């Protein structure tokens, strides 16, 4: 039995919205990072679903790229969070506001 | 016209004084006479070379050579040339060699005189004085042999700078710097017009050369003949306009009405400098320029009439002011303005020879009078007020008799030099005036001025030398040395006999060929083509009329002017040649005050500056500050204010940025959706 492509899109949308909600409401930088991962995965699901739907592998290759990029991003993100903690003794993203006007 | 033989030394005429300038400036302090010797040798060298050039021109050669090219470029001129060159060049023709001799001679005599006048007084700053004198001579000589209008303009400006430096020689006083500034500013005001004129001529004809086939004079003549339109005017009108623009510089430098006010103030400089300025350099430069480019002015009757009228008016105007002055140098200053008015009158009526003749004679007798006045000032222990003099006649005979020769020449008493040239100018003005009412008016003013000239000249002579000494200084005059006497005697002889150069009336009466200057300027010897009296005379469009016959007109004109000069001298004799002269002028009432105050010219100019220019400048400033700057400031304050509000969007909180991103994305979606017709 094949699942229709709409369901994958719905799942992806749901995941994306959860991730977005997390980015917009959470203060903890780690939660932030996790939410971003959710959004990336939502995109991955979309890519794979459409790749399957159209019957070529391009989307899947792109999903692999995204995963690699996500891993790299987490490495950078964790570095930033460490620096954040070292400077502010906190991982609350609303505290460091010194880089505005 | 090759630069071969003797002519290859021509640049040295001007370079000698330039070297003297450098020497006096650098080593003057260590030299025995503080730079005077260098100056004397340099000007003597210039005089010698000028005489050699003069002789060469008399031998039928002329010299016209470009020495150095500044720059050249393409130009889309109105007529003719497609390429324009700005060059330094030398033009030695009868007119310029004559002037070179005059300038270097007067400069030499002034240098010698300075030995007695400046060095004897324990003056400080002498190296500076001699350096400036050298630079002055250099710039005037280079101006004289300039072969194009741009070079002429450059040295014209340099002459102005030197006069500024020399008038302000005693810069520690209050009046000298102010007079120097005034001279500089007033003449510069005229020079702005000159500069525009140079640019206009260059842009119109694509050349600034005075002589030759590619001169602007030839180009203008062709344009007039072809009926070409230049900048929307017909060619002749355009020649008039550009000619008058150049004339602005002439009016400033030659102290013609209304830019004459600087010259009486310039008396603040040393008297020797006044002699140089008035006789051979600064003031002569203007009139010389008109003579130099006479071919151009000759193309435009309007410009000529304006020159003549301004000249005639200035001659009379300045002469009336000279009548009431008490300072001996002031009288001479007004006389200079008046005499240059005559030269302008002469040139303006097409009397090229007469104008140049008077320029030459005036150089001699005015240098003589100024140096004489300098000698008087030495005699009087530096007193310049004529009312404190008197009775110097017997105590200083050399000064008296040479001064008297100068005075007779200035007043135009036969047979002294001034008579011949002034009479020729008046004759030329009269014959043209009989056909042209405007010129007749100018002639009438010139004629009336003859009376005033005779009067103020002899008033000066009588007050200074005759009668009883009116002060202790006059009773015991300071003796003068050879350095003062030699130049006085040289110039005294010249002022007496220079008229022999062109005895036109005698020549006409007796039908003999003794009008040497006319032959000289007419290219009888050497001449550059197109720059002869003959050519000019053909171009000048004026008709000439006579009263019954040429001889009668001439005798009548000469008789009237001589009569007026004698009448002026005799009036002065009866009023002032008495043991105890009184200030008769005060009896004139209101007229006296007006004359004394120079017709309130200075007040008028100050009013012009303070009452008219200053409010306009203030209004312009207000407009600039409020409207222009206001607009600019308003624009910038809008963006300042706007950015001040907008910057609060930047909170520094990551969440807000993310929210803005999302909101922006959603907004974009909605917009795209609306346009894409999804809803």
From TrEMBL, chain A:
<feature type="transmembrane region" description="Helical">
    <location>
        <begin position="36"/>
        <end position="55"/>
    </location>
</feature>
<keyword id="KW-1133">Transmembrane helix</keyword>
<feature type="transmembrane region" description="Helical">
    <location>
        <begin position="6"/>
        <end position="24"/>
    </location>
</feature>
<dbReference type="InterPro" id="IPR001133">
    <property type="entry name" value="NADH_UbQ_OxRdtase_chain4L/K"/>
</dbReference>
<dbReference type="Pfam" id="PF00420">
    <property type="entry name" value="Oxidored_q2"/>
</dbReference>
<dbReference type="GO" id="GO:0042773">
    <property type="term" value="P:ATP synthesis coupled electron transport"/>
</dbReference>
<dbReference type="GO" id="GO:0030964">
    <property type="term" value="C:NADH dehydrogenase complex"/>
</dbReference>
<dbReference type="InterPro" id="IPR039428">
    <property type="entry name" value="NUOK/Mnh_C1-like"/>
</dbReference>
<protein>
    <submittedName>
        <fullName>NADH-quinone oxidoreductase subunit NuoK</fullName>
        <ecNumber>1.6.5.11</ecNumber>
    </submittedName>
</protein>
<feature type="transmembrane region" description="Helical">
    <location>
        <begin position="61"/>
        <end position="85"/>
    </location>
</feature>
<dbReference type="GO" id="GO:0016651">
    <property type="term" value="F:oxidoreductase activity, acting on NAD(P)H"/>
</dbReference>
<comment type="similarity">
    <text>Belongs to the complex I subunit 4L family.</text>
</comment>
<keyword id="KW-0813">Transport</keyword>
<keyword id="KW-0472">Membrane</keyword>
<keyword id="KW-0560">Oxidoreductase</keyword>
<keyword id="KW-0812">Transmembrane</keyword>
From TrEMBL, chain B:
<feature type="transmembrane region" description="Helical">
    <location>
        <begin position="231"/>
        <end position="252"/>
    </location>
</feature>
<dbReference type="GO" id="GO:0015990">
    <property type="term" value="P:electron transport coupled proton transport"/>
</dbReference>
<feature type="transmembrane region" description="Helical">
    <location>
        <begin position="554"/>
        <end position="576"/>
    </location>
</feature>
<dbReference type="InterPro" id="IPR001750">
    <property type="entry name" value="ND/Mrp_TM"/>
</dbReference>
<dbReference type="GO" id="GO:0003954">
    <property type="term" value="F:NADH dehydrogenase activity"/>
</dbReference>
<protein>
    <submittedName>
        <fullName>NADH-quinone oxidoreductase subunit L</fullName>
    </submittedName>
</protein>
<feature type="transmembrane region" description="Helical">
    <location>
        <begin position="482"/>
        <end position="501"/>
    </location>
</feature>
<feature type="domain" description="NADH:quinone oxidoreductase/Mrp antiporter transmembrane">
    <location>
        <begin position="146"/>
        <end position="440"/>
    </location>
</feature>
<feature type="transmembrane region" description="Helical">
    <location>
        <begin position="35"/>
        <end position="58"/>
    </location>
</feature>
<feature type="transmembrane region" description="Helical">
    <location>
        <begin position="303"/>
        <end position="324"/>
    </location>
</feature>
<dbReference type="InterPro" id="IPR001516">
    <property type="entry name" value="Proton_antipo_N"/>
</dbReference>
<feature type="transmembrane region" description="Helical">
    <location>
        <begin position="273"/>
        <end position="291"/>
    </location>
</feature>
<dbReference type="InterPro" id="IPR018393">
    <property type="entry name" value="NADHpl_OxRdtase_5_subgr"/>
</dbReference>
<dbReference type="GO" id="GO:0042773">
    <property type="term" value="P:ATP synthesis coupled electron transport"/>
</dbReference>
<keyword id="KW-0472">Membrane</keyword>
<keyword id="KW-1133">Transmembrane helix</keyword>
<dbReference type="Pfam" id="PF00361">
    <property type="entry name" value="Proton_antipo_M"/>
</dbReference>
<feature type="transmembrane region" description="Helical">
    <location>
        <begin position="400"/>
        <end position="420"/>
    </location>
</feature>
<feature type="transmembrane region" description="Helical">
    <location>
        <begin position="152"/>
        <end position="171"/>
    </location>
</feature>
<dbReference type="GO" id="GO:0008137">
    <property type="term" value="F:NADH dehydrogenase (ubiquinone) activity"/>
</dbReference>
<feature type="transmembrane region" description="Helical">
    <location>
        <begin position="95"/>
        <end position="117"/>
    </location>
</feature>
<dbReference type="Pfam" id="PF00662">
    <property type="entry name" value="Proton_antipo_N"/>
</dbReference>
């Amino acid at each position: 039995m094949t699942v229709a492509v709409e369901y994958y899109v719905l799942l992806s949308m749901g995941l994306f919205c959860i991730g977005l909600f997390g980015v917009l409401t959470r203060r903890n930088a780690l939660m932030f990072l996790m939410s971003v991962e959710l959004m990336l995965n939502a995109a991955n699901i979309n890519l794979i679903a459409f790749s399957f739907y159209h019957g070529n592998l391009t989307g899947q290759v792109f999903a692999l790229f995204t995963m690699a990029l996500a891993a790299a991003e987490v490495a950078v993100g964790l570095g930033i969070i460490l620096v954040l903690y070292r400077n502010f003794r906190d991982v609350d993203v609303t505290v460091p506001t010194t880089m505005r006007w | 016209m090759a630069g071969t033989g003797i002519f290859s030394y021509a640049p040295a005429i001007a370079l000698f004084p330039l070297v003297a300038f450098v020497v006096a400036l650098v080593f003057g302090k260590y030299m025995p006479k503080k730079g005077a010797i260098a100056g004397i040798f340099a000007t003597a060298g210039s005089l010698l070379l000028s005489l050699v050039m003069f002789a060469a021109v008399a031998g039928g050669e002329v010299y016209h050579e470009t020495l150095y090219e500044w720059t050249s470029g393409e130009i889309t001129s109105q007529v003719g040339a497609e390429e324009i060159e700005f060059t330094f060049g030398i033009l030695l023709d009868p007119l310029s060699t004559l002037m070179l001799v005059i300038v270097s001679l007067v400069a030499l005599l002034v240098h010698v005189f300075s030995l007695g006048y400046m060095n004897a007084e324990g003056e400080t700053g002498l190296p500076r004085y001699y350096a400036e004198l050298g630079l002055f001579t250099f710039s005037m000589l280079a101006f004289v042999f300039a072969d194009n209008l741009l070079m002429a303009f450059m040295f014209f400006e340099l002459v102005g700078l030197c006069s500024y430096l020399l008038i302000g020689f005693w810069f520690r006083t209050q009046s000298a710097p102010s007079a120097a500034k005034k001279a500089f500013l007033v003449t510069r005001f005229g020079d702005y017009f000159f500069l525009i004129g140079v640019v206009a001529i260059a842009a119109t004809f694509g050349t600034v050369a005075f002589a030759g086939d590619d001169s602007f004079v030839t180009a203008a003549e062709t344009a007039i003949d072809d009926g070409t339109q230049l900048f929307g005017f017909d060619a002749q009108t355009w020649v008039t306009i550009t000619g008058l623009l150049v004339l602005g510089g002439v009016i400033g430098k030659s102290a013609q009405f209304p830019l004459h006010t600087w010259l009486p103030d310039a008396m603040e400089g040393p008297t020797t400098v006044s002699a140089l300025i008035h006789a051979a350099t600064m003031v002569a430069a203007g009139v010389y320029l008109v003579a130099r480019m006479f071919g151009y002015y000759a193309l435009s009757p309007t410009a000529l009439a304006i020159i003549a009228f301004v000249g005639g008016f200035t001659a009379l105007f300045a002469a009336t002011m000279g009548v009431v002055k008490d300072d001996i140098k002031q009288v001479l200053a007004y006389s200079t303005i008046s005499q240059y008015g005559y030269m302008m009158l002469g040139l303006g009526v097409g009397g090229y020879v007469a104008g140049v003749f008077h320029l030459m004679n005036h150089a001699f007798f005015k240098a003589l009078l100024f140096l004489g006045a300098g000698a008087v000032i030495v005699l009087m222990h530096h007193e310049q007020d004529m009312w404190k003099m008197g009775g110097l006649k017997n105590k200083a005979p050399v000064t008296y008799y040479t001064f008297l020769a100068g005075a007779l020449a200035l007043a135009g008493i036969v047979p002294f030099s001034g008579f011949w040239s002034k009479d020729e100018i008046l004759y030329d003005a009269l014959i043209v005036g009989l056909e042209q009412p405007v010129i007749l008016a100018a002639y009438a003013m010139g004629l009336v001025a003859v009376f005033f000239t005779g009067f103020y000249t002899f008033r000066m002579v009588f007050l200074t030398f005759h009668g009883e000494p009116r002060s202790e200084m006059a009773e015991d005059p300071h003796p003068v040395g050879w350095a003062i006497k030699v130049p006085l005697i040289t110039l005294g002889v010249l002022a007496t006999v220079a008229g022999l150069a062109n005895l036109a009336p005698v020549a006409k009466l007796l039908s003999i060929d003794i009008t040497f200057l006319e032959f000289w300027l007419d290219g009888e010897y050497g001449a550059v083509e197109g720059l002869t009296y003959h050519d000019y005379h053909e171009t000048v469009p004026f008709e000439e009329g006579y009263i019954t016959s040429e001889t009668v007109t001439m005798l009548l004109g000469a008789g009237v002017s001589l009569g007026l000069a004698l009448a002026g001298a005799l009036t002065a004799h009866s009023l002032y040649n008495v043991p105890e002269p009184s200030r008769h002028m005060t009896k004139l009432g209101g007229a006296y005050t007006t004359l004394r105050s120079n017709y309130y010219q200075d007040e008028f100019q100050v009013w012009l500056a303070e009452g008219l220019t200053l409010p306009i400048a203030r209004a312009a400033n207000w407009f600039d500050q409020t409207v222009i700057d206001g607009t600019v400031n308003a624009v910038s304050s809008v963006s300042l204010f706007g950015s001040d509000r907008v910057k609060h969007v930047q909170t520094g909180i990551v969440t807000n940025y993310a929210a803005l991103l999302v909101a922006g994305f959603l907004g974009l979606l909605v917009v795209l959706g609306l346009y894409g017709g999804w809803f």
